[in-house]
Design a protein that fits this description.
Number of helices: 8
Number of strands: 9
Shape: globular
Radius of gyration: 20 Å
CATH class of the largest domain: Alpha Beta
Number of domains: 2
Amino acid sequence: MFEKNRSLVNSIEGLSGEEREYLYSALNIHGHACGGMPMGFVAGLEAMKALGMNRERNMDTIALVHSGHGHAAGCFVDGVQFSTGCTFGKGIMKKEPKGKWQFILVQKKTGKAVKVRIRNEVLDSAFSSPFITHYRSKGVIPTDVPEEVAAPAFKRLFSMKPEEVVEIEGPFMFDLKKTKPCFNRVTCSICGSTVAENYIQLEDGKPVCLDCRH
């Protein structure tokens, strides 16, 4: 799988060495070649360019993704995570379920933000492609889609101009509620689990986790 993925990513022209490595990692983690994950990857690259920033390595940028659940947008979100570095694990990616292929990228310290969405024409083309119409919509799992169908779907956006793929609104100021990371831990008095202090509640003066609260 890794050799096949490396070959597919290396066949794409116009990427910097760093972008190529992140795309390769994204493909490995995502698990299959498709047209959706590259949408998010390209959209993330363009969002960062619009904000004049590099890929997030700490926790100073957050992506608010407007995809939902139960529709073909999860792949898009994986692409946004890998190109921007805004991940769910670091708490700098949040879902606001609206069923859309778009997101807002916000710089926490300045409040500067952009909204990026995939153009309707790109979505129309993707959803009328053989990958969707002949396979995915008929219940074929992504890894069973023939390579000769999946690979072109994966590569297609990288041959297009960025402005043909996305629409960008901003930069503009975004009012983001600021929070501080919690480094304190507390032991639940009922189950004994170690819990981040900001998730503990007190019952009869004793620390209780959310699972054990009455």
